[in-house]
Amino acid sequence: MLHGLFILASVLTVVLVFNFFAIKAFKLPAAKRKKYRQIALVVYGFLMLCIGVIFLKSGENPLSGWFYVLFGIVFPVVSWMEYRTKKNS
Q: d(Cα 57, Cα 41) in Å, to the nearest integer?
């Protein structure tokens, strides 16, 4: 019971922290929001890549592992390509 309450409290704390940063992000200028969005996509892609590699090494589900690896590579590449096209125009 105590372990479950600890998990609930930690999840609520994480959600409140994300909410706080989301509210702060909406008050930022558009240029900074785009920069933070790109950083978040790169970090998200790296995390997905790590999860995919863990799935592949554990042998749990290779299809899911390759799915995570693919999207872990695609997110930063698409973010970089979008940044390059906007920078050149």
A: 24
